[in-house]
Amino acid sequence: MILLNPGPVNVTERVRQALLRPDICHRESEFTELLYRIQSKLLKAFVPGAESDYVAVVITGSGTSAVEAALLSSLPHGRRMLILNNGVYGERMSQIIGLHRLGVSELKYDWISRPDPDKLLLALRQHQEVHVVGMVHHETTTGLLNPVHEIAEIVDNQNRVFVLDSVSALAGEMLNIAKSHIYMVTGTAGKCIQGFPGVSFVLVRKGFVEKMRGYPKRSWYLHLMHYIDSEGRGTIPFTPAVQVYYAFDEALSELLEEGVANRVQRYKKMASLIRDRMAQLGVRALLPPDRQSNTITAYYLPEGVSYQTLHDRLKASGYVIYSGQGNLENKIFRVANMGALTEAQVHGFLDAFEQASKSA
């Protein structure tokens, strides 16, 4: 089955075979070596040249576990968070901090608009109690790419902490974490890194780690200092999904061999193939080109064809697409091109789509 949903993604046979490596105990030296390899590769891939300035924290869980860990671990007593919300995953960040009553009024935008840097600057000046600003890098709700570097500059200039949910963007979009002084970036294995779901991570600036030691412990499993201290000793505080870590390690090797910039360009090329053909077919994109990511495109449903009909026809041909969410559920469908996909597979999907989108 060819997966054109934004995670889980198709992986290579090399990554799949890594699941079959020998069983090991996570308290033994074999796991320590595996963990250190993963951490080293994460830093080499995403903060090249600044590896010594960051720590890679590895967590067994989905991308949301990394996001929640970053948010809950980043705030001192008596300070607040501000979330830039323009989609389902920005809303999820707001809900996470809302459960703990840690936030101020969010800056909320419609789902096809980017956050306004000037409004953020004004909000930070008006709300001195805000310590953390959270935002989604790539809002998979619509395939919208948010202005990360512009927002990061404002947050840094105002001496606040930027927590970036880059779960569906790392290895799919170029991001200069170190240059932008982003304190915390979250990611996961099962999207653009082309691993399996079940292991995620947070990249944390080392200078911020020492400050975090004095912050309240708001979760047991998701308290980042538990991981940082344990992983610094080559172990992990809770039982990890060892076989998934093996596959993650292999996926990171593939990423480094291909090169992050080359993978980004490969995804961009795949997205162009899809967008050009869809335009020829008269299928209308939800977003203008300058707001689209490299890995997801949202389209209005063809006239007279429901999402369920389109989905079922395509699945019968071996392709899985993704529905819209919230108020877009009955209006759009989404096509993701992340994962180990070939041009032939993309062309095969587009041929199948042309047939499946006919109303008869």
Largest sheet: 7 strands, mixed
The fraction of residues in strands falls at: 15-25%
CATH C-level class of the largest domain is Alpha Beta
Number of strands: 14
Strand order of the largest sheet: 2-10-9-8-5-3-4
CATH overall fold name of the largest domain: Aspartate Aminotransferase, domain 2
What do these coordinates show?
There is one protein chain. The protein has helices spanning 13-17, 29-46, 63-73, 88-99, 117-126, 148-157, 206-212, 224-231, 242-258, 260-280, 307-316, 343-356, and strands at 2-3, 54-60, 80-85, 107-108, 130-136, 138-139, 144-145, 161-165, 184-188, 199-205, 296-300, 319-320, 322-323, 332-336. It has 360 residues and is α/β, with parallel strands linked by helices. The chain has two domains: 13-258, 3-Layer(aba) Sandwich (Aspartate Aminotransferase, domain 2); 260-355, Aspartate Aminotransferase, domain 1, CATH 3.90.1150.10. The strands form four sheets. It has a seven-stranded mixed beta sheet, sandwiched between helices. Helix 4 (88-99) links the parallel strand 3 (80-85) and strand 4. Helix 10 (260-280) packs parallel to helix 12 (343-356). The longest helix has 21 residues, at 260-280. It starts with a strand and ends with a helix. The relative contact order is 0.18. The model has no long low-confidence stretch (mean pLDDT 96).
